[in-house]
Amino acid sequence: MANMAAAHSDRKPSRLDPEAMPRRDFLGLAAAGSAIAALLAAIAGMLRLPRAAVLPAPSKKYRVTLPESLAPGTAFIPPGRSTALFRGADGVYAVSTICTHLGCVVKPAPDGFHCPCHGSRFAPDGAVLKGPAPSPLPWVAVSRAGEGTYVVDEGKAVPSGRKEAV
Ligand code: FES
Questions:
Q1: What is the pLDDT of residues 120-154, one digit of tens each?
Q2: Domain 61-158 is classified in which CATH homologous superfamily?
Q3: Quick check: CB of 104 below 6 Å from ligand 1?
Q4: For site-directed labelling of 64, which of 2, 3, 34, 110 has its Cα 20 to 30 A away?
């Protein structure tokens, strides 16, 4: 056995034997491979970027059925919406609940709306009762779509006082 190993190590190298790779070449190849792998990872990361990470905003136009028990002068704010609807004998109307001062969402109150940010107060028809809000809450378009059902378009302002038939 020892003779075989000695005979093997004494063998004269053939010109067909692969050359041993010098350490410098090996390190160079390893560095190039690492750079290519990092580049591919960066490209894969960039390809993921264009995907939108936000949800589309809900439509500003929506259908709502007013509760039968909604008393005149009482605000009904559909969940997730920024509009208050009122029903009276003379019709239905909708008022934006976005404060005209700096855009906070106003809260319904017995006398209309209160803004929790800087204390503005509004009447149920949106008129300013107390500043600093500079202007009334805007009215938005309402149209009748059926018995007790209405279509509200938060993106379409209408002049104050325009009501939809009950
Ligand atoms: S945002 Fe409503 S009073 Fe300032």
A1: 999 988 889 988 989 999 999 888 888 888 888 88
A2: Rieske [2Fe-2S] iron-sulphur domain (2.102.10.10)
A3: yes
A4: 110
